[in-house]
Amino acid sequence: MESIPVSIKSLRLEKKLTLKELSSKTDLSVSFLSQIERGESSPAITSLNKIAEALDVDITHFFNPPKSEDFMISFETAEPFKVEHSSQTMYRMSSDFENRTLENYIIEIPPGARNEKMRHVGEELYYLIEGKLTVYVNEKIYELNQNDVIHFPSNISHYYENNSENIAKILCVVTPTLF
């Protein structure tokens, strides 16, 4: 599988687009797109989705989903990845099969880290594997401890932060699927 930066650049050149033209199609700056193509910056999922749409491919084009005949995914063999401007480490824990509706991740959240406030279609569930985590859903505060679960419609404003001194690790299950 090509790396995401190489794949973006190859597709852009294949479609005979300049960085400036891709910039106008995505509303992302030319310098940011150039940094992505050089591997100096990692795009957030939302930015990657804009790039995929502008290049006329599905976002899944940039990923090689795990294949398993017995549908088991091992954390030990999952490839860690990070998204732009985030100190969190994510592990995709979803099988790849037709009509799948769940997207599963294990996310390691370092002390002091938080994700961005968002809302989108679907649902989210967080199971706290270890540590402590503060989750904000519609401005209501939930303090999660190990083995706690929170499940909510993701069309309402939500985000989380790790206010503890230890890494928090969650299983995040979200719909709709991203990859």
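(the above was protein one; protein two follows)
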Amino acid sequence: MVASADRIVTAERTVHASASSLFVLLADPARHVEWGRRDNLASAAEGQTITAAGDTFEVNLVSGVTTVNTVVEFVQDRRIAWVPAPKGEDPSGQLWRWELMPSSAGTRVRHTYDWTHLTGERRLIRALALTAEDLRRSVDGVALAALDS
């Protein structure tokens, strides 16, 4: 059994871009494939811009599964989080969160994967394999995408 504290993985760094320009990337699921985990995300349709808690968006995974993601936290230019569920199923206990903290040096970007409430042996095995370095690569990808925007 994995302790609850070990079920929260985080990575962060300062990015030399404004919080608003970074948030635009995070709120556009079609752009997630550019900087997200390429071993997991395959595609997302254009036009699913996230504007509030309660919004949903769909993402196609490389496994062929489509997830419906429900936004559970939304503070414009500061925080966005969602819970995924395979289409037609209830959420399995995972939460993905992005937090943006402006500073004089840029924007501190924190990416968190919280699987405290995750159920299902197969999902637990995948969650255990996800590391802070995996999340850091996503943060780095968002930083690069912001430079290209």
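Reviewer note on protein two: The CA atoms of residues 48 and 57 lie 6 Å apart.
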